[in-house]
């Protein structure tokens, strides 16, 4: 496992396969993240065949310095005993394995421990594995027989906020990524976009949007802007973004 932590993730490893779903999106280290793994309609369990094994297990790693050569926080990897890892249980109604992760309380027992308040997290990855790996199994086969390739969490960089401090924060309504607005909850919103001088560039009133629906802010020129979002209850958030 040390080798895994000392090399760059491959392009293959950075892909999220259609069999693996990570929600919510967008997401930061402060979100409770749910991972599901199921068969692809065409290729089946091609990423990792569970062969009815239940549960599967999640191995986690976190990066805090924008360098994937060293993962400062990661779980302990044991080829034969995964009991320290998060369990992914099979849900017969969905035909998928499922698990949820609260990163703020997770103990990275391989290195780092629990994330301290204020730690800025820029990246993270996970591996779905069986109870045994090919180094331990009586019939080794290949690595892909026992574990998936590295999967990237695609976090939006953010600092860890401990639960005890979250009550002091105003509710987060929206997030902007690549010039697109994403709402945390479905509802009706007033949306206004300003430049740094305070000039109103565009606005939408009583816009009905679904949670995590992408809405383009229609900004073509490079620069710094502010988007003010207000929900039907009067909760307002100003989001600074750079095009």
Automatic annotation (TrEMBL):
InterPro entries: Secre_tail. Keywords: Signal. Residues 1-20 form the signal peptide. The keyword Signal applies. Residues 185-241 form the Secretion system C-terminal sorting domain. It comes from the Bacteria. The keyword Signal applies. This is Por secretion system C-terminal sorting domain-containing protein. The lineage of its organism: Bacteria, Pseudomonadati, Bacteroidota, Flavobacteriia, Flavobacteriales.
């Amino acid at each position: 496992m040390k080798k895994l932590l000392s090399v760059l993730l491959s392009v293959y490893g950075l892909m999220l396969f259609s069999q693996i779903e990570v929600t919510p999106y967008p997401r930061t280290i402060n979100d409770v993240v749910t991972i599901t793994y199921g068969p692809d309609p065409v290729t089946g369990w091609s990423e990792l065949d569970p062969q009815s094994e239940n549960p599967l297990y999640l191995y986690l790693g976190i990066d805090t310095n924008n360098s994937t050569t060293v993962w400062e926080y990661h779980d302990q990897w044991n080829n034969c005993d995964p009991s320290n890892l998060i369990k992914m249980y099979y849900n017969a109604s969905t035909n998928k394995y499922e698990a949820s992760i609260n990163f703020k309380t997770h103990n990275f027992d391989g290195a780092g421990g629990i994330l301290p308040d204020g730690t800025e997290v820029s990246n993270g990855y996970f591996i779905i594995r069986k109870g045994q790996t090919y180094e331990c199994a009586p019939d080794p086969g290949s690595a892909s027989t026992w574990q998936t390739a590295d999967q990237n969490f695609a976090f939006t960089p953010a600092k860890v906020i401990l639960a005890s401090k979250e009550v002091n924060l105003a509710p987060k309504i929206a997030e902007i990524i690549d010039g697109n607005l994403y709402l945390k909850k479905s509802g009706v919103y007033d949306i206004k976009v300003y430049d740094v001088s305070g000039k109103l560039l565009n606005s939408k009133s009583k816009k009905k949007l679904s949670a995590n629906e992408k809405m383009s802010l229609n900004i073509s020129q490079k620069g710094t802007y502010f988007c003010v979002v207000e929900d039907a209850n009067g909760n307002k958030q100003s989001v600074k973004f750079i095009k």
